[in-house]
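#data-curation
PF: Archiving a pair of folding outputs for the training set. Convention for this channel: one message per protein, sequence first, structure tokens after, nothing in between. First:
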Amino acid sequence: MDELTGLATYRDFVVSLAALSGQERISLVLFDVDDLQALNDRHGHEAVDRFLARLGSLIQERCGAGEMAARLGGDEFALSLLEDEPAEVIREVEQIRRRFGEETAGATLSVGICDGRTALRAAAPLSLLEAAGGALADAKAQGPGGLSVFRLG
């Protein structure tokens, strides 16, 4: 368990995803706090630790049975959802982003999303975590507050 947020760790999250391997009705969301160093400079480390803990709480509040939230490291968080409709996942992500921004002096999150059905149609070695990571990289390339959904083609 991550000491700051109380969420699962990267290792626990990967084990959880492996147990869900092959299940189509799942989506994986990766969150990354934008410009963490600038937040540290502006608000201080204690405030940023509170921001990270609050993000952990917001993500955990969304978790239902069979779903998992984790702090993957530093300012990167993950959420597995037993939901495969991208529009619904985006709606839920936007609620988390809005609340986080309101409660943290306007801090923003970049988000990458991949649903299980898309990952299963992708190349065999492509995992849900890799696909969501690629989507997160695309979101960060958009600038602060970017959002990207992994899609084939």
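PF: Second:
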Amino acid sequence: MHSQAGMLANLSIATAVQGLSAADRVLAVLPLFHVGGLCIQVLPALACGAVVNLHARFEPGACCTT
């Protein structure tokens, strides 16, 4: 089980390493029950004010824009 302090530390580090800011848009296609989807993609993006586009699964035609 993750502690709140651990989750906050993780999202702080993930935000810094990825260079996320409120100007970013994040496409989240990983499952949120997995650490990659929740702790590496979604929570850091939300914490810095970025837009999160959440898809149920990866489908190239659904997420690629010109």
